[in-house]
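Sequence only, no structure available. Ideas?
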Amino acid sequence: MLDIQRSVASLVLDHSECAPVLQHHRIDYCCRGHMSLDAACWERGLDPVEVARELVDAIARRTGDDGPDPRTLSTPALVGHIVAHHHEYLREALPFVSELAAKVARVHGANEPRLVELHAVVTQLCAALEPHLVDEEERLFPALLARSPERRVLARDLATMLEEHRAVGALLQAMRTAADDFAWPEWACNSYRALFAELEALEGDVLRHVHLENHVLAPRFAEV
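Reply:
I predicted one. Tokens follow.
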């Protein structure tokens, strides 16, 4: 049986297949990854034993290889992975979901006011993430990879990263709430359904992205 006293971040580090289960239950394994599964579940009004069973089932169903454990990657390789797999994904996904959210809100917003709210949240999320990617690539990552990083500057930049991650996490929660956990009505058109599917995929990717930076990358520089 899974140890429910383990932190949710450590569970995802050891078993990446746990991430979608925690995402579904709105358990923050990124910015609040230090919390035990037990505490995180009770905070959400969930039975930790039942959630643990879901996680065990997800681990048992794992098929294929997710690639190397990110903890084993060198820092340059880890940064390269984050940029190639997460930053590039966001650069394509953000403009697409922004336009799609605007279209769906325009067509269906009169009957579904939550879609207007959802469009506003998606706009805020894009506005938060787009400059964040640039800042990481142009300032933070080069500082992390420098031969002799300046301790004070590095600490400041990492603190800024973590603060921005918390803001993004709040926007993801607001997005999921506005989208009613990405459940669409039976009458939803293809664009409506596509938007919700894309937003759920976007949420999952951002959570994995932030998790890597918070729990694999940043701790390497805790003593710098």
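The mean pLDDT is 94.
Hope that gets you unstuck.
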